[in-house]
Every structure is written in C-alpha cells, then in structure tokens.
Specification:
Blueprint: H1 3-11, H2 19-22, E1 30-34, E2 37-40, E3 45-48, H3 51-54, H4 63-73, H5 87-100, E4 117-123, H6 126-145, E5 152-155, H7 164-168, H8 173-176, E6 187-189, H9 209-212, H10 218-232, E7 239-242, E8 246-247, E9 253-254, H11 259-269, E10 273-277, E11 292-294, E12 300-303, E13 320-323, E14 335-340, H12 341-345, H13 367-380, H14 383-399, E15 409-415, E16 418-426, E17 431-432, H15 439-449, E18 452-453, E19 456-457, E20 460-463, H16 471-488
Helix pairs in contact: 4-13, 5-13, 10-11, 14-16, 15-16
Length: about 500
C-alpha cells in the first residue's frame, strides 16, 4: 500500500462512507487532473464521470480559471466580509443577479407577480446556502406576517444539506433519522417519481418512465391538498422548498415537464415563499441551451443566452435561490443565497433595533473563490461552452440508449447533463434490490476498475461529467457502466 494511502487509513474520516469497508482495501489517491481525466498516485488514469461529486463544470486544470486565480493571488487571497468589501465578490454578486433574473427561452409566465432577485449573501457550501435561505425566510415571515412559528413544506425524498436546519428540511430517513432529536418539524408532500409512482398506470417499457406515464397529475393534486389544508387550519406554510427539475440525493428523480410550474404557482398563490435549491442543478447542469447560430462553414457566429438555472426552464422565479457546488467551477468551496429586495428590507433598521441578520462565515465572499466564480461564469456564457454542453447532452442521450438491453436496468432518466440509471432485479416488475446488496456500489467499483469514477445513490448509478467531456470519453463512461452491470450479474 502506498504511504499516502496508509496515512489516509490512519487519520482521514470520509463523508457518507462506512469506514470499516473503506479500510479493507487501498483507496484511489488522486494526484493530478486535466480536463475530464484524473490520475492516481500509481499513474493510472480515470475519467471523472461525476464531476468530482457534481462540482466540476469545465474540467480539471482549466487555463482560464487557473489564470484568474493566479491574478488574484498576486493581489490578496482573503479579507473579511465583516466590515470590508472587495472587488471580486461585488462583481460576482452582480453577475449572479444578472444570470438569475434572465428569462428562460419560451418559458411560461406566471399570472402572479414574480419576485426579483437582487441581493446575494455569500457562504461556504450548499448546506450553508440553504441554512441562510431558511433563516431569512423564517425571520422575514415572523416580521412581515406575524407568524410566531413559521412552517415549511418540502418534498418526500428531499435532501438539502447536513447542517441542522438543512437536515430539518430533508426527508430521507437513511440520512436524517438519526438526528431526529436535534431537528424542528417540517412537512413533506409527494414528489413526482414517474418510474415508481403509485398513480402511474403504465406498464414498464424500455424508456424513461416520464415518456410513457399514464396519470392524472395526482402528484400536483397532493401538493394542492397540502397547501389548502394548512391554510384552512390557519397555519399556512411560510415557504415551499424544492430542487427544480431533478431531485439529486433522492436518486436523480426527474420531474415531468410542467410539474414545477404547476406546484410553484400553487404555493405562491397560497402565500408561501419559494425556496429553490439549485446547489446541484445550477450553472447549466439541466441543459436548456438555446440553439446556436451557425455560419456557412459551420463556424459559430453567435449564441443566444442560455439559461443557467433549472427554474428558468419552466419560468419559475423563486424568492430564494441557493447556489454552491459549480459556483467556482469546482475549484473552491463557495456558496450564495440570492433573495429579493423585500426580504432585505425586513432586516433594515437602526442599530439599536437589532434587526441585523446575525449569521456569517469566516470566508464569506473570499476573493479567490469569487475570482474563480467570475471566470467560470464567463466560460459558461461563451458560445463555445453553450455548443459543447448541447453536444454533450445529445451524445449522452444517444449513448445511454444501449443500456436498455440489460435486464437489470429499470429506468434511464436524463435531465440535461445529469443521468440517473436505476438498477433493478427485474425490469418487467420494477423489482428493486435491497440496499444491503450494494448493487450500485458494486457496479461503480467495477466501473472504477475500467477507469471510470462515479458514485451511486443507493441503486442508482449517476453520470454527470464535466462539460469538456469529449464524445469518445462519454462513450467510454457509458460502455464502462454497461459492461460493469453485465459483470456484476453475469
């Protein structure tokens, strides 16, 4: 075993990892990365098929982001945001507001007045971005609506982070039940899961379940009932919390087209603040790019603006937008919570009123993270990046069609550049594997032996590569997944 691997075994406690299993074998120790390729301490190369836990957008060692960080290092790495401002954070805040308030292409408009995101509170990661949104929504409701104990509605299978407030918003027993004694109560309502929906009358087919579902939008009706019931009791919900278009940690569960718009209009109509968790879905992950104009020789002449956030694809304008993961292109831990002028104003007053938002982080708005974020946003808006994302999305959609040949693939669901492949014992009956069988883990271990790295969510294998992934690399990822499924089950 390599000396660094021995040090890891001796001292490092890894997240979401059973350390007894971890210490049974030598871990992969990454020392180098370029584009979609990672290299371990023994010199073996791997494709990064989950973008380093959903964070890396443009590939490892991107020259533009590297250069931005070097320029900022020549100035200053970090100064406190408590009492001081800095240039990169101020510019990044302005660019995030600009990106978040752009209208999505052809998105339906709500008949209700839409909030306008204007203010940005920087923090450290997705959990803290959601914690900030929760605290702001709680106090805003108390101050403006007189509710002493504001209540929040989320979705079944929700995961919004690991801080106590974020865990309280989550509804995955495997992750959250152990901390029940620390949490405050929030309510959950049915989330759309077309593949396993009890209201879907369609028999299993070899296609994404959203394409052949037969239902009456009962999942929307459940949300409406929940909102109406709370209002009737005199305790309307202060906020509705959701991941737009796809629930990540729930198992990459996609929402059918139109669901998000329907339920957020209902929640908005019942006076609930909309809290959008785009920690995973933000910064182009869910696709939706507009067509790129081509010149006579095929060269890109110009590109219409592509929406960077999942909410924009259905014309949803939240009151809070939580961002992290891809914010710095996968380089540095940084997060942001965007909100409205109305929320900001509720915290204004004289010093002695003590209406200040008493919350903060030591590295809030740090210059290095903000510099990386600005460089990443610049890349995302370039015609080259828009074209690359469109091409990769189409390539993955074409390649994953071959997965349907396996009897142990029950559902292949794709939203933009996010793919979840649900493994089952029998696709004709949708029979699931018991989690103790470690079906997803075994397939991902087999993929690792083939030089492709990703992590499962239970029985769902995730493919979420960096945007620089080439068609050949995408084909290798899908082939490794297909061959690994065949290996595990003979």
């Amino acid at each position: 075993m390599h000396p660094i691997a021995r040090l890891d075994h001796a001292h490092v406690w890894h997240p979401f990892t059973q350390m007894r299993d971890w210490q049974k074998s030598e871990p992969i120790v990454i020392v180098d990365g370029h584009g979609a390729v990672l290299r371990d301490i023994h010199g073996k190369e791997y494709l990064d098929a989950n973008a380093s836990i959903w964070t890396n957008l443009h590939g490892h060692g991107h020259p533009t982001i590297n250069a931005a960080l070097r320029r900022q290092l020549g100035k200053v790495a970090h100064t406190s945001a408590l009492g001081l401002a800095n240039e990169p954070a101020s510019r990044l805040a302005a660019e995030l507001v600009k990106a978040a308030t752009a209208a999505g292409p052809g998105a339906p408009r709500s008949p209700l007045p839409a909030p306008h995101l204007e203010k940005v509170f920087f923090s450290d990661d997705g959990s803290t971005a959601m914690e900030v949104a929760l605290k702001l929504a709680h106090e805003f409701t108390r101050r403006t609506k007189g509710q002493k104990s504001p209540r929040f509605l989320g979705l079944e299978g929700a995961y919004h982070g690991d801080t106590v407030g974020a865990v309280s918003l989550g509804h995955i027993d495997l992750f959250h039940k152990a901390y029940a004694g620390l949490l405050f109560k929030t309510d959950a309502v049915m989330a759309p899961y077309c593949y396993r929906c009890p209201f879907n009358r369609a028999k299993p087919e070899r296609a994404d379940a959203r394409e052949y579902r037969r239902c009456g939008w009962e999942c929307v009706g459940k949300v409406e009932q929940k909102l109406a019931s709370a209002k009737k009791r005199g305790t309307p919900y202060a906020g509705f919390v959701f991941e737009p278009l796809m629930q990540g940690a729930a198992g990459m569960i996609p929402q059918p087209a139109g669901w998000l718009k329907r339920v957020t209009d209902l929640a908005h109509g019942h006076g609930a603040l909309l809290i959008a968790d785009e920690v995973m879905t933000g910064f182009g992950r869910t696709g939706g790019c507009r067509a790129v104009a081509q010149g006579k020789k095929g060269a890109v002449e110009k590109s219409s603006p592509a929406p960077l956030f999942a909410c924009q694809q259905e014309g949803v304008r939240p009151d809070f937008l939580a961002l992290a993961k891809g914010l710095t292109g996968g380089y540095l831990p940084m997060a942001a919570t965007l909100t409205t002028q109305d929320v900001f104003d509720a915290f204004l007053g004289e010093y002695e009123d003590f209406k200040t938002f008493f919350h903060g982080h030591s590295f809030t708005g740090n210059q290095l993270g903000a510099a990386a974020g600005l460089a990443s946003l610049g890349l995302l808006g370039s015609p080259r990046s828009v074209t690359a994302r469109e091409k990769l999305e189409a390539t993955l959609r074409s390649m994953t069609a071959s997965l349907w040949t396996s009897p142990h693939v029950g559902d292949v669901r794709q939203v933009g550049l996010v793919i979840g492949v649900e493994l089952v014992r029998d696709w004709k009956k949708r029979t699931p594997f018991d989690l103790r069988e470690k079906a997803g883990i075994r397939v991902c271990e087999a993929m690792g032996r083939r030089g492709v790295l990703t992590r499962p969510i239970g029985n769902v294998v995730v493919l979420m590569p960096p945007y620089c992934t080439t068609p050949a690399q995408a084909e290798r990822m899908v082939t490794a997944l297909r061959d690994s499924v065949d290996e595990v089950w003979g």
